[in-house]
Amino acid sequence: MKKLMLGSVLSAGLKVASAGLTFLMFMLLARVLGAEEYGLFASMFALGTIGAITALFGQHTLSIKTLSALGDGPERAADRRFALRRSFQITLVGAVLVIGAILGAGMAAPVLGFDVNPVYLIGACALVIPFALAELVSHQYRGFGSILWALAPRDVLWRAIVLLACLGAASLPFVFRDAFTAMIGISLVLMALVVVQLIAMLIRYRDQFAAQPGAQVTATMPWGVSAWMWVASLGTMGASLNLSAAALFLPPDQIGAYFAAQKTSQLLQLPIIAINIAATPVFARLHSQNDISGLCDVGRKLAMLIAGPLAIGAAILIFFAPDLLSLFDPSFAAAALALSILAGSYLLIGLGGPTRPLMLMSNGERPVVRMTLISEAVGLMLIPILVPAFGIVGAALAALVVRVLFTLQTVAWCRTKLGVDTSILSLLPGGRQTG
């Protein structure tokens, strides 16, 4: 538990830095690009994120589960090497397929009567490979137990470099002159950092990859594509999916305002993400040992750690919503109600606890898939009803419904199937689960 707490403190510190840099990065991008170009940038970023998560085919989640289960003994070096090589092969093939699908859809759009800007599609494609590889490598470092190398390059350095580029855009007109050049620029920076991470991994963990001559790969390990983990991981792109669907009914400036509201509300993800990063390998290890009492103990402590910061953070975002959004663009203050709704939705997710990683590390991939599909399907069906009627507030309401449905389902599953409660309910009298 001490290692979990230390990991949580480190990940929380990095996520605090990341949250501040993320907010500043997207805020300055909005100021540099202007409301309409920022809306186009938001659409490209959302589609690129969806493409990257899809291209992973669940390899990021599978990597952390596999590496945590393998431990760090030299006898499993061949397995580790094979696991990493296979994960990169599958991810790169997936990225090529996704890029082909995006460009193919763009070519077919005019035939179907849709007017799609090819620049928008190319910009989204530029983000797919760097973002997918960054996500994969980050999870692999977490599997090796290195929180610093997992988070610092993408969550801190990438954002800091883009932030500096935004500051230099005023004197260097060729830097981020429009949404497309901004997307290409941030994608190239991210790819460079991924290369640095990969080189560092090969050097840092070379002993763990040094297999003995004749060592065989364990046939029973889940080396292939985990279809259930893949579909389950798609739930992490819910915000991007929500924005991409809403963008079909909104003008660019409103898309930019909603994107600003999304990015501001996601500050509330900070505590839960920090906890998830440190707790996921612990969940995998405890479940592999069938230590239900240990899972219960971790669940209660996580609920205790997260409740206070989330409640305070939500109150701050709701109270200062217009002022925070005005930092992006003065016209974005009109999205204050949408920001308040999104903040409430993230508060509910956080109070439910890290149920998704617990389920994924406890062979609950199929239930997560079912719950994700049900929740996201309901949300997508609400978009064409709520957005034309209420604009970006309607999009925020659809996101709220998705998160409430998913959280209720996952908390109920963990309580009934595992006897583990990671929600705020575990702190109430009678809420303690014994497994």
From TrEMBL:
It comes from Roseobacter litoralis (strain ATCC 49566 / DSM 6996 / JCM 21268 / NBRC 15278 / OCh 149). GO terms for cellular component: plasma membrane. The keyword Transferase does not apply. Signal peptide: none annotated. Keywords: Cell membrane, Membrane, Transmembrane, Transmembrane helix. It is found in: Cell membrane. It is a multi-pass membrane protein. One of its GO terms (molecular function) is xenobiotic transmembrane transporter activity. PANTHER family: O-ANTIGEN TRANSPORTER-RELATED (PTHR30250:SF11), PST FAMILY PREDICTED COLANIC ACID TRANSPORTER (PTHR30250). InterPro entries: MATE_fam, Poly_Biosynth_Transport. Its main location: membrane. The keyword Transmembrane applies. Pfam families: MatE. The chain crosses the membrane at residues 38-58, 90-112, 118-136, 156-176, 182-203, 223-248, 268-286, 298-320, 332-352, 373-406. This is Uncharacterized protein.
